[in-house]
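Q: I have 191 residues here and want to know how they pack in 3D. Can you give me a structure?
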Amino acid sequence: PSFAGDCLLSLIQNALSAHADSAAAQKKALQAIYSASSAAEYLLKQNKNFVNCGPAGIIVSENGSVLFLPPTLFERSMLSRSGNERAFLYGSWIAPISDKSANLRFTVAACTYAVMSGKRPFEQEDEEKRAEDYLDNNFIPLAYLIAAENDKTKALLQMLDGALSCKTQYTKSGLQSAHPSQKIGRASCRE
């Protein structure tokens, strides 16, 4: 059996392009992000083994069903891409932190940020400079780019900005959350 759906990254890119019905494309992308986020949060709560491959590794069907590509399949597909494309697909959407839930929330926030603002939160093409931007939280908060129409929208924008600004630190095993108990809205950086 096959799984009919669209790659989440393609939906995001459609929403960012300047085609005629961008409002419909934006709505479709946000609904797909919500479906993927809900499915991933469910897997995390159930302690299921799942790897965040970013929006290029997520397929969402019209009915909201979600398929997360296995990391081996995703990584093999990345071998056909140029170094710059791989850096874009990994670096723009997946946080360099080890905590699974903070990493997932970063991906959801980065995808939502892109659809809502029209650009990625961390746009630096150079990997080392982008890593510095992650560590320095060098992005324009979404709350500064989008006018909040009500308190719920304001809280959502703050939550998304919080998920993008998880403090990280270098350790022997890579980047990790620096503040184990830090909570920003519903986004948390726990180790």
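Q: Anything worth noting?
A: DSSP finds eight helices and seven strands in the chain. The longest strand covers residues 168-171.
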